[in-house]
Amino acid sequence: MIKKRHYLFIFFSNLLIVIHLAAQAPTEDVLKVDELLLEAAQLDSIDSAILLATEALILAKKENYEQGIISAQMDLANLHAEQRNFAKSLRNLLKVIPFYEKNENEEGLYQIYLQIGDIYLKEKLYEQALAYFFKARKLQDQIEVLERIETTYSSDQQLGKALVILDEIYEYYEEQNDYNGKVVSMEKQINNYLGQEKYDYALKINKALLELVTLEGDDHALAVAYNNTAYNYIKLNEPQKALDYFQQAKIINDNDDIEEEVTLNINMAICYHNAGKAQEAIRFLRAAEVMIPNDNFVRQCAVRQLIAKMYLNENDFYNADLYNQLAIEQAEYVKSAVQMSSAYRQAGTIHERLYEFEEALRYYTLHLSIQDSLKTVEKLRQQELLQQQLALERAEKEIKLYQVREALQDAELQRTEEARKLLQLERDNLAFQAQEDSARLILLEKDRTLQASLNRTKEIENQQEFLLLQQQVQTEAQEREVAELREQKMMQQMKLEQAEAAEKIKQQEIRRLEQDKNLDTLKIRNQQQLTYGIASGLSLVSLLIFYNLYRSRKTNKRLSQKNREIDKERAIAEYERQKSDDLLLNILPEPTAIELKEKGSATPKKYELATVIFTDFSGFTNISEQLSPEELISELSTCFSTFDEIIEQHGLEKIKTLGDGYMCVGGVPIPDQQNPVNAVRAALEMQAFMEKNIAKKKAAGVPYWQMRVGIHTGELVAGVVGSKKFAYDVWGDTVNIASRMESNGVSGKINISKATYELVKNHFHCAYRGTFEVKNKGEVEMYFVEN
């Protein structure tokens, strides 16, 4: 027996181990996520890799595979960054942050903050870049963070702050005794002082750098230091000292580094030119020209333009034109717009000095044409940069709002789950109590039956005469009870008919109760007949009659309870139906809601004249970081609730909110020719509310945001989208142009299109803004509403 137990113990122990391992083993879908990510990493095509990583992310979310979600979003962030789609890259990085915060993964957060800061730095959003770099520094005070902060300050021309960070960087490398790090940080300090035109401070660092590289015996770094010191003396207007240092740099370099030698010759030429020694300057420039590799056309072009300029200063027009023409040929060959523009301008100057005005005019025209092209390209580049910056800001706002809403939903779900568990516990307790009561009743019934049997036996044996007399009395009582039971049966039948008419669903249970009652009646009749024949069973019959009477009353009570439950359920159903109707009217316009209820669907409709309003809060990202999630949601709710009241007064229809943006439309679902005027009036009231709100917050010394408003009028299509979660929405070019009106607007102003202006100009005073380039729409005329 002991051995058998021992074997059973081993069997069940092994079974538990197998079950545990099966629970811990990754599922097939989890393994599929890892396979997809590995396959994506091996692809050369970025688009294909993005598709695989996206598929992996969807599967990981379905399986709630946290590590898979993190890996997929990090891969997508890196892939989108390679395509320079920084907005999508930023969205994926921001979605990873909550996972790392929940798991307190400081290393992961540190790397994420660095990546986000790098994105903002590339897009020249220096304030946002610094915010994330400083977050990273709070987690880990590493040299790579300091260097990024210094680069950001320098790029933003905050040279004073950059210099403070450079001091910290130098101290770090000095503590580490890192020679290369100290050299690089000192060179950055020199450039910083030169940028601030503090040439004496720059010279002091230059001399310290010379001592450092001399002690190290680093000839290359020494040549660079001599060259930089010489340049420093040029800025101090001491050409002779500059030449001395250039000579020392040239001696050390000794043609070992051709690129450095070319730079030295050009710098020496500049020194000789400043000293009034033109021939010496030209000699060094021609030496530099010879050293430049033949395939470096841009450098050759620049040097030849410089030679031409020096010949021109010496009134040697022949050589000036000769070298300048060589520069033009090379610039045209490599299609360098900047070099061509410079060479054309210099050619114009040469021919003007030769009194060849037609030729000079030709070259000046070419120069101006290229300059116009360069300005256009620069303007387009700036617009593209601005759009990318706006996309990044909106991406971060959307993700932060999404995270706030997700946190609130999680809290609500947790509260709901706790309530459900509490309710289930109460139900289990009630069920247990009911089982316990049922068992107790069964025992009592058995005791009563046994006692009744004993009483009957005793009465039969000892009280025959009394039983005969009791039989007569009980027979009369029985007849009265039967009459009462018949009357009760009729009443019960009436109640059953009422219950059937009220609720057919309860029919089956009512029939069962009726059958029980009929069975009880039948039992009573059978027992009555048996009583006439057998005198000794009179007590048993009496007990059965009383028991069945008790059962009948209990049945009546249960019928009454069921009727009350039916009435209660009917009232609840009616309340829920009304609640559903109210909710549908809150989501959809009333005509659309009625059509949806009657037909089960709503047909989209085209409107020839509708006015769309878009609003957006400027400064929202920075201020939202200073508020708690509850304060942020409360502030947005206050603004949007007020907007809802305003547009309702003017007959406009709210469409949706987009993060901190608000969208509404006039002229739908009921056409209204006055909707452009009503829309502008509503926008004015919304701006007036915002101005009062800003004044209150300024007085209280708390952060506030301003609002841009954009309006456009035209045709659009409106209807219901979705088959489960209905949403009333509008589509068309009018919506897109209204959105562009908002994004091209100004805080505190209402920006309207020309189409809207033509319809409202007799009602409001408007100021013409001019024509603006709008993405995918070309040039669009815009106006500000001033009252």
Attribute tags:
8 strands, alpha+beta, disordered N terminus, 28 helices, 787 residues, eight-stranded mixed β-sheet, 76% helix
Tell me what the structure shows:
- This protein has 787 residues and is α+β, with helices and mostly antiparallel strands.
- It has 28 helices and eight strands.
- It starts with a helix and ends with a strand.
- The N terminus is likely disordered.
Shape by Cα distribution:
elongated
Mean pLDDT: 78
Count of runs of 4 or more consecutive helical residues: 28
Structure summary, number of beta strands: 8
Which residues sit in consecutive blocks of at least 5 with pLDDT less than 50? 1-24, 463-473, 530-541
Give the class from helix and strand content and strand pairing.
alpha+beta
As a percent range, the share of helical residues equals: over 70%
> What is the alpha-carbon Rg in Å?
45 Å
The N- to C-terminal Cα distance equals 100 Å
**Major β-sheet profile:** 8 strands, mixed
Query: Beta-strand percentage?
Result: 5-15%
